[in-house]
Amino acid sequence: MAFTTNATIASFGGKLLKLSHEAKSTSCKMALNLYLPPQAFQAQKTTSKVPVLFYLSGLTCTGDNCSEKGFFQHKASEKGIAVVYPDTSPRGLNIQGEDDAYDFGSGAGFYVDATKEPYNKGYNMYTYITKELPETLFKEFDVLDGNRVSITGHSMGGHGALTLFLKNPGMYKSCSAFAPISNPINCPWGQKAFKGYFGEENQGKWKEHDATELVKQWKGHLHLLIDVGTGDNFYKQGQLLPENFLAAAKEAGNDKDIRLRFQQDYDHSYYFMATFADDHVEHAAKALFA
Amino acid sequence: MAFTTNATIASFGGKLLKLSHEAKSTSCKMALNLYLPPQAFQAQKTTSKVPVLFYLSGLTCTGDNCSEKGFFQHKASEKGIAVVYPDTSPRGLNIQGEDDAYDFGSGAGFYVDATKEPYNKGYNMYTYITKELPETLFKEFDVLDGNRVSITGHSMGGHGALTLFLKNPGMYKSCSAFAPISNPINCPWGQKAFKGYFGEENQGKWKEHDATELVKQWKGHLHLLIDVGTGDNFYKQGQLLPENFLAAAKEAGNDKDIRLRFQQDYDHSYYFMATFADDHVEHAAKALFA
Question: What EC number(s) has UniProt assigned to this enzyme (chains A, B) (predicted)?
């Protein structure tokens, strides 16, 4: 058993498992939540499997925030989709300064593999999310269908969802995002993170993890759902830049099936997420059950 | 303007207002949340009003917990019901010891008017919830229909919902509860609170705020929805005693339309609440729109 089950909580007819495991890629114990919909328990009897939606959280969050406030379980329960809520960084690596800022270090892994000392010691959330975590999960939980996986996320996690999707064609059946950091190389949050994880000089690496850069290279059909609130202060401050992403997609001829919705008055909080969570699970369901 | 609006947050098509006001009954500034569904904004134009659901929180909570995690806005938005999330006690009265325990004093007002020194200085949540708050709200917010009000609550707030409903025939169109403290005079939480707020000798007062005692006196039809999780540790510890309530109702011939549902494996948390919030709003809606 790779995972320890620290709690099992009934939720919307299924079970939310609070798990932890020793992860190699991040050099530490990682916590996550796994929501198994009611169909997962029926599936165990019939040997069919349920598809999986990875939800990547934003700055400062753990897997708990969205499990409690995001209401993904509501529609995931109805559709029969498992939801994985990973943490946002390694924890407790004892790197000097890693806990000093809300937007860098712990709680702010940015879904990259750091190349710069000292963060290259374990800040490898890219490998953790795309390889180690799914491989370990799908090995231990037979009921999860590793061939039907989608991805979504919020803010820094929206950046994660978009970049992991765009860097790995075929790995995810669909992608959506809430208020994603869409062009990190051109916003303060992204610049700070990439400087710290890659170094200032390593601009090639920066571009490899920038959704707006990646979408220019995308080949084939691109069907995305992106929601941004017009009352989101981080949007107003230029941290999100979804227009840059859309413009780049348009220039590359890939924008036709990107639904970028500006939601009147909504902010950056889980109140916003909860309101549109059903739509994002529906978006994933269409691809996962196609 | 009796209320200060500290924040306005878009949620499920409506707005959650974070309000505060100087309350006479509790001798302090009280915070609360008011969810206005989308229909409230349409109603302002047509001069029709929306009905109101009071949600009473449990021990340690403020109005924020359920606003963020309870999922009531989901169905309230659809039905066109405003939701009021009050605080659970006065705050900052500087009574010695009021912040020492999670289950007495601040965060634990138990929806009674304290008669015992020193808590009689402001621990008057009964008067606050049944009189001052609704009167002040309905005066300031024209869009709220003071003639169509329902009540619900969780744990200590479930006790509050049941007792306020049973003590005030006609005041509330309907009542429901999640994991209510149903017989406080016979459980440790209730005994501690009533001893502190009323005194050990004042058993008459104790009974006046005990749902199981009150239901014996109820005249007429009684239509209640009560959910309790079988995995709820407080239920297992005998803090809730819903069976006592049901037995008393039965003895009085009032149990026919009480739906006491035991929900398999659910605990005492907001995961439980969120799962069944839709049902409780539906229960209220049937009465509010009858």
Answer: 3.1.2.12
